[in-house]
Amino acid sequence: MVLLDNSNFILRLEKIANAAKKDSSFTLTFKRYDGHDKPVPRAGRPPLPKPETYMCLIRAQSKSQKISTVVRQEDVPTMMGMYSQFMKSKMDGLKRVKKVKSKAKATKG
């Protein structure tokens, strides 16, 4: 998995979305991240220190490509702005679902 900075993550995510648009899909995962890369220590050992602020770990996966980024608390508004622009630009392939009226509702109204 490749750890990228926030702006490069969005750029690579756009490339993944364009590649997945034709025949596959991609997934995004948001997770609270405390900065620890080590597992929880066993009983009798000192515990890992609590972080002052938590971060957000964002992962994207499509087929064999995996990318990730860590968003710090002060960078959340700018990252979510870039992410919302990405979602607005890439969600153009959705089809509108037609509502089917039931016969009971059609006869009443």
Automatic annotation (TrEMBL):
GO CC annotation, single: signal recognition particle, endoplasmic reticulum targeting
UniProt superkingdom: Eukaryota
Keywords: Cytoplasm, Ribonucleoprotein, RNA-binding, Signal recognition particle
Subcellular location: Cytoplasm
Coiled coil: none
InterPro entries given in the database record: Signal_recog_particle_SRP14 (IPR003210), Signal_recog_particle_SRP9/14 (IPR009018)
Keyword Transferase: no
Record GO biological process: SRP-dependent cotranslational protein targeting to membrane
SUPFAM superfamilies membership: Signal recognition particle alu RNA binding heterodimer, SRP9/14 (SSF54762)
Entries under Gene3D superfamilies matching the protein: Signal recognition particle alu RNA binding heterodimer, srp9/1 (3.30.720.10)
TM region(s), chain numbering: none
GO molecular function, a single term: endoplasmic reticulum signal peptide binding
Classification via Pfam families: SRP14
Function recorded in the entry: Component of the signal recognition particle (SRP) complex, a ribonucleoprotein complex that mediates the cotranslational targeting of secretory and membrane proteins to the endoplasmic reticulum (ER). SRP9 together with SRP14 and the Alu portion of the SRP RNA, constitutes the elongation arrest domain of SRP. The complex of SRP9 and SRP14 is required for SRP RNA binding.
Assembly behavior: Heterodimer with SRP9; binds RNA as heterodimer. Component of a signal recognition particle (SRP) complex that consists of a 7SL RNA molecule of 300 nucleotides and six protein subunits: SRP72, SRP68, SRP54, SRP19, SRP14 and SRP9.
Family: Belongs to the SRP14 family.
Name the UniProt record assigns to this protein: Signal recognition particle 14 kDa protein
Source organism per UniProt: Drosophila rhopaloa
